[in-house]
Amino acid sequence: MAKAGTDYERFVLTIQQAILNSEEFSKQKNIKIELNKKIVDNTGTEREFDLYWEYELAGITYKTIIECKDYNSKISVEKIDALIGKIKDLPDIKPVFATKTGYQSGAETKAKHNKIDLLIVREQVEDDWKDKNGHSFIKKIFIRFIALPAPEIINFQTFVDEDWIIKNTNIDTTKPITMQGMNNEIFIYDENKNEQYSLLELSKKTSEDDEEIEKDTYRHIEIFENAYIDYNNVKLKLKKFLFDYIKQNPIESNVEIDITKELIGVIEYINQNKRTAVFKDRIIKNW
């Protein structure tokens, strides 16, 4: 059976590990926090601590423990005394105490005189989303997307320059001229405007001035002085084209971004009067 407080210990571990991982020094050392670490003190007595991590710097090993208490009331001086007694034969340990509610004044004084860092490690509260003047931060962002689909072209006609074709090609103009290909393979070149586009891109040519030839159906006409239609090295001079199209209805979607769901937890450093917020993707100090 798991001992009481395990959930809170794992919560503190998650928050503290995230902060360690955000520090450049910790990244280099790859510091990992251990849960329920057992250490033998100088008298040979085995002591168990809720959280423990260590690292080596310049040949010296630095060790830190955190005792976690998931209480609904403030920590009393007796709890600090218990930690002092637990570590008195472990002189190379840096002690830290964590709770979610706070500390009595006597506990804070005793911890300060014994160099024990006090933390409040907790989930977010409403006041976390206010600045020192009581102004609220933005907690939710609502985004409305409106997409305008390309018009649906239902008819396309070209009008070529027959005289130019007779003079410049061997095409028999008494017979229908066909261009068989994908609409992204047939191109129109408007040399006067220095434009080039495929039939696939015709929908971009629509205009607010286009004529509505019947309900919800519009006609777009382009007239050219010096333009060509080209497919697979077959190039014909173009006098004009027209196409009929149907406008598509806008597609709307709404997205809600709840920033509060990104905030994993908060650490208050009692000795330093500072607070750090741990989000899923970032750490914000002096939150």
Automatic annotation (TrEMBL):
Transmembrane segments: none annotated. GO terms for molecular function: endonuclease activity. Residues 46-119 form the Restriction endonuclease type IV Mrr domain. Keywords: Endonuclease, Hydrolase, Nuclease. SUPFAM superfamilies: Restriction endonuclease-like (SSF52980). It comes from the Bacteria. The keyword Nuclease applies. Pfam families: Mrr_cat (PF04471). This is Restriction endonuclease. It comes from Aliarcobacter cibarius.
